[in-house]
Amino acid sequence: VMVVKALQRKGESSKLKLVEGGIAPENFTGKIVSEKPTHILMVDAAVFEGEPGSVRLFPIEQVSGLALSTHRLPLTFLAEYLQRSIPQVKIALLAVKPGKVGFGLKPSRKIVKTAERLAEAVFKAVEEA
Fold first, then answer.
1. Average pLDDT of the residues in 72-91
2. What is the CATH number of the domain that holds 11?
3. pTM above 0.90, yes or no
């Protein structure tokens, strides 16, 4: 959510469509499929080796072993549906290792900075593509 909000602050881009899925990204599959994207980059918190604020890019096929944020449906189910609906789409997960997690906890300054840096990198990569 933080990365999407940071990207929204950067302004519109004809090359980039943003969907803030929150805890139920499956509610946005119709919108995503109607756009017929060639690439989908899911961004989520995930538990993996490294310090809080660490970032890793995973092909969606490697996501099944990761502990991800709480969603109603696993992101792998969402990805499978999208791949069936848009056969040529390439899907990846940009995972950020969270700091302390819990209901009502705000993200640390380090996590906020990471989200801002990721938004900048994604925006730049898309605009230069």
1. 90
2. 3.40.50.1450
3. no
